[in-house]
Design goal:
The radius of gyration is 14 Å and the shape is globular. It is built from 3 helices and 4 strands; from the N terminus they run βαββαβα. A 4-stranded antiparallel sheet has the order 2-3-1-4, covered by helices on one side. It is an alpha+beta fold.
Length: 97
């Protein structure tokens, strides 16, 4: 991970909106990169094993120049899909570097 010019984030978005997520945020923040694990699909299930919701989680990075626009756009979407959208900024201490 190159910490000189980039911020790194863990993200989670609903599976249905993942393609819209990528296209919209690449327009807002052209420096956005998707990192491994790519397309990591998870689901939430109730106690009986019935799938309630499917979402995609992964890691992305963005240059410092695009960070504020990206975070603002993501938090606007987060307000719409409050339960299933998540954005957590990673730090060097959190990743053990």
């Amino acid at each position: 991970m190159d910490w000189r010019e980039r911020n790194y984030y863990l993200f989670r978005v609903p599976y249905e909106t993942y393609d819209q997520f990528l296209s919209a945020y690449h327009k807002i923040a052209p420096s956005l990169k998707i990192h491994a694990p790519y397309n990591h699909i998870k689901n939430s299930a109730d106690y009986d094993g019935n799938v309630l919701h499917i979402y995609v989680q992964g890691m992305i990075s963005c240059r410092f120049s695009d960070v504020q626009r990206f975070e603002k756009a993501f938090h606007e979407k987060e307000n719409v899909h409050r339960r299933y959208c998540l954005l957590k900024q990673l730090s060097k201490e959190l990743t053990g570097q």
